[in-house]
Amino acid sequence: MLPELVDRLFPLEIQRPYVSMIQHRGGLTRRKAEYFVRLWAYLLLKQQEELNGRLPANLKELHAPDGLISCTHREAAELFYQGQDRGSDRAAGMMIDRLVALGLLNKQYDGNSLCLQIRSLPDLELPKPDKPIELFADAFNPRTDAISIANLYTRNYAPMIRDGAAMSKVAKVLRIWSQQYATGMRVLRRSDNHTVVAASVLFPVASESEIYFFQQPSRSFYLTTDNPVDPFIMAAPGDRTCLSIYIRAWVIDQPYLTVATLCQLLEDAQQTLLKIRNDYPEICDLYSLIVHPIYERLRHILGFERICEDHQKSFAWIHGSVDRFLETDMKQALANLRIGDASHS
Hints:
Blueprint: H1 6-9, H2 12-25, H3 30-52, E1 69-70, H4 73-81, H5 89-101, E2 105-109, E3 114-118, E4 135-139, H6 146-156, H7 166-180, E5 185-190, E6 196-205, E7 244-252, H8 259-279, E8 285-290, H9 296-302, E9 305-309, E10 316-321, H10 322-327, H11 330-333
């Protein structure tokens, strides 16, 4: 069993719900949760190969393997770091010790060989829904949704956050925006319990604030910092000098990050833009901020272009046309998109 086969036999889109579950359990960053899930899959695949004489065609779900399975620090390093310079055998050994300390692994070392065992814990099993969970688009409700979206936002935009009170600030600001202009604030909910799993905020920008789209993005960060003044002023409904819509939030909870969910959120954004255009008839420009590489491929597909990048970070302002966005057949445009390959542009 070669470590590099893990992603082929257990694809990233199947890994993500487990990563999210492990992260919510506490004690692990997202990166460390990813390491654990890859190790878990590797040990399970390795045991199946030993028992059956061959590898399975694919791995659809994880369960705790039986007993201890040999795994060297070199194998773990190849799993965790995949050829990155920072990934040494010693670093992998330290990561394994951390996972043991968190109660996720058992370790046995006899002086010559290392064996690992995934601990069988009830909270490491994904719940199996009785039927597929359906999502539906809905308006933002400031009374019930503000905290949920603030939690999603701070987890998705973690690389930008410099203020520990960010979640409280995001919730407060969302409620203020909804009082000013709620039309552009949308969510996707689960049909069974109405939990918010995705959200978007289309923010009409006053003409005097457009200058910030042509400066380094970090100069105008607001929600993720302790900056008390929002650089972007919201245009008043009916303002014919308002030309720009800022996609101020675009977040999808990791277990629901699929092409189908992306398409649903994009199609809802199209319908929302048509309503916004009734209040701001001259809008023609769409701006957003690229933070996650996973959306780089989506940027290409939708025809957005990079216009201003941050010299210190990988953040960039991107621009698209409102008219072209509205004309796009989202299902057709996303037909060949693979979430696992989205970071390759």
